Amino acid sequence: MHKVERTGSQENEVSEQLELPAQVLKMSEIIFKKIDEESRGTIPIRCLPQALRLLDQAPTESDLKTIAANNKSDSNDGTGQISFKTFSQILRQTYLPRDDHFNKLFNAFAELDEKDKGTLSADYLESLLLTKGDVLTKKQIKVIMKESKTGADGLFAYMGFTARLIDGYSKLSRTTKTENQKATKE
Predict the structure, then answer these.
(1) Domain boundary residue, one of 96, 125, 149
(2) 168/186 Cα distance (integer angstroms)
């Protein structure tokens, strides 16, 4: 197994992407309006993680802290509200298409795979997930290991898991989007 290679220009292109796909922009408007229940043209900044996840984005806690620090409230009244314009700017700065999410996660696993076999020791992975980055609980790790179909040999095959995770998250999000679209039309 090898890391999925991307050129420096591809990485810059993603991080500096100015235009969102039309479908994402349309969905972002629908989701924003749904969260803006009082039609004030703003949403609470605390709802930003939910809105981003509904758009198939997976910001880490660290990402969210950085976003919050860089994007204070649009109002000076201390209500913590952001406009659609600010929301769109945040989305443009953080948006990753499905394939880039896959590559990012796959490459993280591949970096840990010293033998380059597409597997990691489940015990090693559990230890990392309990202690590094956005730390998970033992219960969350148990679900991941069950979903990953960790083998009797104690090895976690990350290629298939990464695809299932990204595609499953996307399907869940699409279901929610469809429900939001129906609710918006009513």
Answers:
(1) 96
(2) 28
43 and 110 together in one domain:
no
Would you give the distance in Å from CA 4 to the centre of its chain? 19
pTM of the model: 0.60
The two tokens of residue 79 are 């209500």
Domain count for the chain: 2
pLDDT tens digits, one per residue of 138-149: 998 888 888 777
Reference 4, options 117, 105, 96, 97; nearest CA is 105
What is d(CA 77, CA 183) in angstroms, rounded to the nearest whole number?
31
Evaluate whether 130 touches 138 at the Cβ level (below 8 Å).
yes
Element (H, E) at 82: strand 81-83
Cβ pair 113, 119 in contact under 8 A: yes
